[in-house]
Amino acid sequence: MENKRPFLPTKLPKEPCPRWASTGECIYGDVCKYSHDAVAAALGFRDQQPPLAQVNTNASSRQHPTAQRAPNPRETRQQPSAPGDTTFLRRNPAGPSSAKSQNWRGQSSPGNHNPHNRQQPETRSNPNPQPRQPLTQGNANSRNPHESRNQDDLREWKRTIRQAASNRTARIRFFELAIKLVDGEVGISQDMFKTLAKEDALQVIRTLVQQALPQATSVQDKATLWVAEIEPLLRVITHQRVVDSAVLEQEVFTIYNFLHGIGGQRMKTLYDFIIEFIGSMSAGKAPVPQANLCCLSMTELSLGVLSKMLDSNSTNIVNQDFSAIIGRLEPLLNDAAQRPNQGLYLESQARQWLRYIKLRLGVGDSLPVSAPRSQSAGPLTHFVLPKNLPGHLSSNGPRHDNDHADIEKISILPTPDEILCVSDEYLPTNQPTSFHRPGIIGRLDREFRLLREDTVGQLRDVVRKQLEKMHNNPQALQFRSQHVRTFTYHEAEAIHLTFHRTRGLDLLVRFVQPARANDSSSREDWWMHSKRLQPGGLVCIICNDGSTIFCVVSDATKYRSGNGATTFSPKKASLADSPDYAYVHLLLADPKPSNTLDALHWYQSIGPSQERCLVEFPGVLLPSFQHTLEALQQMSKAPKIPFIDLIAPDQQLAGLVDVPPPHYATKPDFVFDLSSLTDGTPLQHGSDEPLDPELLSQHSTLDATQSAALVASLSMGLALIQGPPGTGKSYTGEKLIQVLLSNKKRAKLGPILCVCYTNHALDQLLEHLLDEGVEQVIRIGSRSKSERLSGFNLRTVSNNAERTRSENQSLRGLYSELDSHVGTLHEYLDQLDTCLSRDAIKSYLADNHPRYHTELSDVGVDDQGFQIVHHRPQERMEQWLHGGIVTDLAPRDISELLDTDLWTMTREERQILYYYWAHEIRDPIIDAFREDYESWESLRDERDRVAREVDLRCLTEAHVVGITTTGLAKNLDLLRRVPCKVLLCEEAGEVLEAHSLTALLPSIQHAILIGDNLQLKPQIQNFELNSANPRGAQYSLDVSMFERLVSPPHDDEQTLPYSTLQTQRRMHPSISELVRTTLYPNLEDGGHVVDYPEVCGMKKRLFWFNHTAPEDRALQLDPTSTSHVNSFEVEMTVALVQHLVRQGVYGPDDIAVITPYLGQLLNLRRRMKHLVEISLGDQDKEELDSLDVDDGELPSGINVKPPTASKQSLLKSVRLATVDNFQGEEAKVVIISLVRSNEEKRCGFLSTSNRINVLLSRAKHGMYIIGNSETYGNVRMWTQVIDILRNKGNIGNQLELECPRHPGSSLLVSEADHFLQHSPEGGCNLPCDERLPCGHACMYRCHSDMLHNAAKCLDPCPRPLKGCGHACPKICGDACPSNCQVKMEGLELKLRCGHVATGAVCWKRQHPESIECHVMVQRTVPGCKHTVMEACHVNVDSSMYRCPAICLAPQPCGHACTGQCCRCNTRLEGRVASQRHGVCTEPCNRRYAKCRHSCQEKCHGESSCPPCSAPCEVRCSHSVCSKKCHEPCEPCAEQKCASRFGHWYSCANNHLFTLGESSMQIEEAKCPQCGAAVDGVAHEPAKAVGDGDELEEATQGIADLEV
C-alpha cells in the first residue's frame, strides 16, 4: 500500500539495513525501510573479533562484557575497558533478610518443593548506559515513536544470530540481549525464545559448546566464557517464564534435547567444562573474591539445567552419563555448602534439584536433608503481577498506533502497526480495583478490550502469521489457527472501482482461480458447494509490506454471469466464468475516509509492485461483534447507563445491597394491578403495601416460588431471577410481561423491550406472547425463522406506514444531493483510472514542466531553432525512465532534481522524479475524492436518520419490542430514542456482559434479568480468556453480568438479591435427583412428573452404559483438532435410537441425541440420515455445514451435486444437537454420547459443572448416557453423579432392554450388533404371539404394535370372491380384488345394441352392461355432419367425442380447411359452438397478370403476391433466357435472330411492332406509330405472328421499322 502522502524523498542516505549489511540478503527487498546501497553498508555492522582478553570485566557492573564494534546508527553501546578485569555474577551475601537475596531466585512460598518452580534473577541494567542517538527529522525511515525499547533489542538480537555463529563479539552480544529480552515483555520474550529454538540460533549454541569451550584452557578464559556466554544461556533456558509456559513447551524440549546432543556428547562437553571450572574455583585457583558463593550459585544453576534436560526425553532416565555427572557435582555441592556465609535458599534449591534427579535416575529413593537454618518469617502477602497499562499510561509508551488508554480512540479492526507488534495487549482482569479507569468507565473499558481480543485478536494473529508466510517464515508456514479457519487467494489485484449511492466504494478484486475445473458449470458447482466468499463474509487484503485492508464480500458478487461472454466486463465479472481468475466485489469493512484512501492508493499504486493476497475468514461475520464494540465506545463517551451504583459502583461495598424499586413505581399511590393473572380475584402490589406471594399463588397458575419471583421483580429496579432447569423461567417472564402490559398506561411504560441472545429464543418468546393475546408486537431483525412473525417484522410494519410530508421532502432533497455527489465521485474514479498513463504524464509535464515535456516529447527544437523528430517516440519515455547509470552515490534531493537535466540523472534519480510526477497527478484527485466522500458520508447518515423516523414511530406505538443482543447494538441509535422503561432479558446467564451493558438504554428504569448462572456460560472463542482455564480465570470473559451480580468473583464485591424458582416440571424425579444432589439442593418436583410412563423398550428409564472403547486416536492426537469422535459410541447410539423408534410410541422430536462435540454430531448425522428423519437446530446446522464443507480441489470434469435431503421413513424424526445449543430445549427420551474415553482421563470441557448440568437436565421420561465413567471420574460433579447411579444400580457395562410384549425376557446388549441379535425388530427373539387382522398367526419375531400393524400375511387368501365364488388370487395380507378377472370361454351374450359378445371376464359376465361392443358401424356426427366409422360402443353424440374427419370448411381466402375436425370445431349439444381453423397453409395458386404462371407461396390472404419466381420461358433458336420470370431478359447477340428486335406486339389500332429486350415494363410501352397502349401479354408475341422461321421471314426487309 502506498504512503498516504506524496512520495517526497528527504535526506539521503537512509539508515543502513542491518540484515543486508551483515548477510547481503534482506527478505523485504525493495520495500525495506532501510537502505541497501554501498554507502549505507559502509556505515553498518562490521565484524571485528578482538582477542579473548579484551572482554569488559568491570567488577562493579552487572552488564555482560562486550567486544568493541562499530557503533550502531540508532544506539551506541558502552566501549570496552582495559583487558584483564573479570567480573562474575554474584549473589548478595547479606543473607536471607536482604531483599536482593530474596528476589534473586525468589522462592514463592515456604514448603514449595517442586524442583521446577524456580524464579530467575532480576535483570540488572548497565549502571552507565549510553544515551540513544536521537532520531532526526531528516531520516525518512525513522523509528515509530510508539515502539518499545524491547522491540529494538529484539530486532538487534535477531540481526546478530548469523554473525554470532562465527564471531565472538556478536555471540557475546547475542547472549547479553537474550538475558535482557527474557525479562522483558512477555510477547517479546516468547518471540525471542521461539527464534532461539530455530536452526540459526542453535548453530550459535553448537559453536559455543563444541568450539569455544574446548579452546578455553586457562581459568581466566573459562571465567570469561562463563560470565559472558554460558551463564546467560543457562539463565535464559531456566527462566520461569520459559519453563512454565505452555506456549513455549515445544521450544523448551527442542533446546534441551539439542544441548544433550547425540549420545549425550554435547552435554558431557558442557558439564566437563562446568565441573572443571567449579573445581578450580573451589580450590582457590581463580583469584576471585567470594568464590565459594559463586561455586554454590553455579552448582545450583547447573543442577537445575540438568534436571530439565533429564525431563526432556524419557530415555534419559537410563542414561549413565547423568549418573556420572551427578556423581561429580554432588561433592562440589557439599564442599560449597560447608563454607561460611552461604545462602540457605541456594543450598536448599540445589539439593532439591539433586534429590529430584536421583529419584528420576533411580539412584536412591531418599536423600538426607540438611537441617534448615533458622530465618525470620516475613508477613504473608499476595503476589500481584503488575500490569503494563494501555497507551500513554504504559511505562514503555504505546505498544502501537492503536494502543490507547481511551477505548473510543481504538479502531475496531486491527491496524497494520498493531498486526506487526509482538507485544501483548493490555487486558484488564476481573478485579475492579485494578482497572485503570474507575466505575462504569472501567467496566466498559474491560468488556470492550476483552471482547475485542476474543474476536478481533484472533484475526490479528492470523493475519500476522499470513504476513510471515509471505516472507517465507518456516514456522509460520506450519501455523494453523485452532479457532479461525482461513482460505487464502493469491495474486489479489484491484482492477475496477465503482461507487454505490448507499454502500459506498465497491472494489472488484481479481485473484487466481482456486477451482480447477475445465468448464464454468463445474467451477460454479465448486464455489456453491464450498460456500466460500459468501455475501457479508469478512476478508482481508494483505500486502507484503505489512499494509492491510479489511473488507466484506458484497452482494454484487456472482457465482457465474451466465452470458458466456469471452471478453471481460466489470459488470459481468464472476467467481466461476474464467478458468484463470476469479472476481469478487468487496466493500470496506470500516468505510471511514482513511480506509477509503488506502483502497484508492492500492488501486492506483505508485512504486515497485507488491505481492498481495486475499485471506477469507469463513463463518466470521463482522456485525456479530462490530456493533457491540462500537456501542461500548459510544457508551464510554457518554455513559448514560442506569443502575451504575449496582453494576459498577465507584467504591465497592462488600455484602448484600438493597435494590430500590423502579423509578416509575415510586409515584404516589402507584400500585401494580395483578388481576390479569388471577381467576378474577382483584390483587394489587405496591411498594408501601406489598402483596403476599402465597396469595398470588392461590389465585393464579403460578407456583409459590414463581409468585415470589414475580412480586420481587416488581419491587426492584434491577431484578434477578434464577431458574434451574424445567422450573418455568420463560413462563414466569411471560407473566411478568402480562402484568406490565396491563399497567402500561398508568405507569406510562412505553414499549417493553424483550432481549434474547439467540434468534430462536426470541422467536419462541414472541410466539408465546401472541398465544397469550398480546397485541402490537414488533420484532427487529431479519433472521427470524418463524413464518408467524413475518408480519410483525419492523421492516414490514414500517413499509406499510406512511411518511410525513416533511420526511418525504427531506428524503427527496437528500437523495438528490447524494446522487449529485455520487456523480462527482464517479468522475474522480474515471480520472483515477487514467491518471498514471503516459498521456497523463505528458499532459502534466506540458502544463507544469514544459522543459521536461520538450525533452521527452515526440518533436523537439534544438538550440538553433531546428525541429528535431525522434524515432520511435513511444519508447522515449521508457528509454529515459529505465536508462541512466547505476551508482552507489546517494540520489539528490527532489528540489534539486527539478532543475536538473533529465538525461544526466542516475537511474534511481529518474525513478524518484517519475514517482514525484505520478504523486503530483494522482494525489490531488484522491484529495478531491476525499472531500466529496466526507460530504457524501454526512448526507448518507442524515438520510438514514430521516428514513428511520417512521421506524421510531412504529416502535413507540408498539407494546412489545423483541430484539437480539447483537441487533440491539446495531440499532442502538434508534432504540435510544424509543421511550422504553422496562427491559426483560431471557437466558441472561448466556449473555456476555458486553451485550448486557449495551441493552441498558438510558431510558430503562426497570430491568429484569432471567437466567441460571449454573447452566451454560456465554460462549467465547479464546480459551485464554475462559474462566475454566487457570490462566484465563483472571479475565473470565465468559462470566455474564447475571452471574457476576449473583455470585461475585471476589469477596470484596457487592452482591445483589435474587429470586430462585424451585419447582421443576420437566424431569422424572430419578433424573432430577442428579442435579438436585449436585447443584440445586432445594429443587422440588412438581406437576405430574412422578407419573411419567416408563421408556418403552427399556428396562430402566435412567442408565449409564459404561464402556472402555477409546475415542478415535487420529483426532485426539491432532493438535489442531478442536473436536473429538468416538466411533463405538456412534454405532451404539444409532442402534439405541433405532430400537426406541421401533417401539412406535414416540412422535417427532420426542427422542433427542446430545453430544458435547461437533465432530461427533457430524458423524451421527452421516450415520443416521438414511435411517431416520433428522432434526437439527439452526446453530448446529450452520456449524455442521461449515465443518462438512470439502476444502479440497474439484477434480476436472466432475460436478458437485448439492446434498440431498434426509430420507423419509416409517420412523419418526430424531433431534440431534450439541449440548451448547440445546439449553432451553427438552425431549421425552434423551441419549447422551460423552465421546471422551482415554487413559489420560481427559474429559475436555465436560469437566465444567455448567455443561454437565445442561446435559443431565434435558430429559423428561428417560435418559441414557453412553460413556467411559473412568475418564470422567476425576471431575467432582461426575463423581457424584456416578455414585448416585451406582447406588441405584443404574450404571453398568450392559444395557438392559425390555420387550413390551414379553416383559420377563432379559435382553442385555453391550455392542451395537447385540441389538440385531436380541431385539432385531424392537421386541425380542420370541415369535410374535399376536394374531394378525386376517386371523392367521404372525410369522415374524416379536415386534412393536406399529410394526405388527404394518405386517403383511403371506399365506394364500382363503376368502372366495363375492358374486362368483372363484378363489382370490392374492396373498392374505393384500386386499381381495373387487372384480373377478377369470376369463369365461364359450360364452355368448346379447348386448343392448343387438350385437353378440363371444367372450368376457367373470365380473363383466355378472354385469353385461359393462361390456363394450367393438363392432364397427357408420355414424353421422351431430353439428359437423361428418360421416365416420367407429366402434359400436362409441357415442358420437357426446360433446366429448373428437371427430377425426377432415374439416373442409371454406376459408376466407377461398381454400378449404385441411385440418382435423376436432381441432377446428368445438361441438356443444349437437351443434358447432365455435370454430378455429388457424392459418391456411395451402398454396396461393393465384395467376400472375403479367405471365401465365400462378403464385406458389403459402396462402397469404389479401396480401399481394410476391414477384414470379418461375424460370423465364423466353427462348429463340439460339439460346434460352436463364433468369427468373420477373427479371429482365438479355437479348440474343446473334445478328439474324428475330428476337434481337424484341417481342412482337400489336396496339389497339392493330399496328404490329416489336419491343426490344430491355428493362422497360410492358405497361409503359406505347405504339410508335399511333401512341396507343400495347395490346399484348408480357413476353407473349402477337397472335398474328408465328415463331421460328415465320418470324424471321416476317422481319426481313423491315430495317427501317421504328422500334
TrEMBL record:
Annotated ranges, domain C3H1-type: 11-39
Pfam families registered for this protein in UniProt: AAA_11, AAA_12, ZnF_RZ-type
ZnF (C3H1-type) residues: 11-39
PROSITE patterns the record matches: ZF_C3H1, ZF_RZ
Compositional bias ranges of the Polar residues kind: 54-66, 98-143
Source domain of life: Eukaryota
Annotated CDD domains: EEXXEc_NFX1, NF-X1-zinc-finger, SF1_C_Upf1
Localization (cell): Cytoplasm
Region spans: Disordered: 54-156
SUPFAM superfamilies named among the record's database cross-references: P-loop containing nucleoside triphosphate hydrolases (SSF52540)
Listed Gene3D superfamilies: P-loop containing nucleotide triphosphate hydrolases
Keywords: ATP-binding, Cytoplasm, Helicase, Hydrolase, Immunity, Metal-binding, Nucleotide-binding, Repeat, Zinc, Zinc-finger
Span of domain RZ-type: 1527-1597
Ranges annotated as biased composition (Basic and acidic residues): 144-156
InterPro entries in alphabetical order: DNA2/NAM7-like, DNA2/NAM7-like_C, DNA2/NAM7_AAA_11, P-loop_NTPase, SF1_C_Upf1, ZF_RZ_dom, Znf_CCCH, Znf_NFX1
Record protein name field: NFX1-type zinc finger-containing protein 1
Organism field: Apiospora rasikravindrae
